[in-house]
Amino acid sequence: METGAITSYFDVAQVVLYGFWFFFAGIIYYLLRENKREGYPLESEGRGSVRVQGFPAIPEPKVYRLANGTTVAAPPGQTAEREIKAVPSAAWPGSPLEPTGDPMVDGVGPASYALRHEAPDMTLEGLAMMVPMRIAPEFSVAEGDADPRGMWVLGADGLEAGKVSDIWVDRAEPQIRYLEVALDSPAGPQSVLLPITLARIDSDSRRVRVQSIKAEQFVRVPRLANPTEVTLREEDRITAYYASGNLYADPSRLEPIL
């Protein structure tokens, strides 16, 4: 027999090759299983409460210990349920949903948001990450840049919604994240956050322009539970509200251009 042969039909090279095949198959199985720690089980629209997990099955929960001492399990073991204020537009599974109320407020379609933790994002030092400059005096507007505080905020209809009362900054990555808008409302003093990425500061006219929603729709922007903190879920809801206005703010935006 030749060098490396175990029998006349079986040698070391074959053992290594078969070992690699088994190892590679195991890696694929492991990765497919770990991939199901989020987003599973799937829900079947056509069969009601049937849960779809496929092969391989969902793994046992793995518990992660976070820096603040809390723990998170993946998969969580239970699906977060909330009422979807929309109905299918047709009888077949996967048909588009038609909102039954105000989709911007109800979180339907582009206004949908994730049920993230009702706690603010934190820095490594244990401080709230997104805060207004009134409690973060170490931040300031760079010399030469327009300071939006005191500027009127205009909606997509060109009407005034309120004035910028403060700037919210990111302590971890020093930059502006939100503008706080004091609304011009007959109901009394009200403030909402405006994502800086959905606003355009016009330093010449000293106006902040928003194209996604109208002035009257600012009063329905989701509010903060704490005036100096914004939770992860509140961030998702606020951003989704403004972004969904590109479709829902005006009936003319719902139909195709052509």
Outline the structure in words.
The protein has 258 residues and is an alpha+beta fold. It folds into 2 domains: 1-79, Photosynthetic reaction centre, H subunit, N-terminal domain (Photosynthetic Reaction Center, Chain H, domain 1, Irregular); 117-253, Alpha-Beta Complex (Photosynthetic Reaction Center, Chain H, domain 2), CATH 3.90.50. The chain has helices at 12-34, 103-106, 232-248, and strands at 5-7, 10-11, 42-43, 51-52, 62-65, 71-74, 86-88, 97-99, 130-132, 152-154, 160-170, 175-183, 191-195, 200-202, 207-209. Strands 9, 10, 11, 12, 13, 14 and 15 form a 7-stranded mixed β-sheet that branches. Strands 1-2 form a two-stranded antiparallel sheet. It starts with a strand and ends in a 10-residue tail after the last helix. The model has no long low-confidence stretch (mean pLDDT 87).
Strand content: 15-25%
CATH architecture of the largest domain, by name, is Alpha-Beta Complex
Strand segment count? 15
H/E series: EEHEEEEEEHEEEEEEEH
Structural class: alpha+beta
Helical residues, percent: 10-25%
Could you say which overall geometry the principal axes of the C-alpha atoms support?
elongated
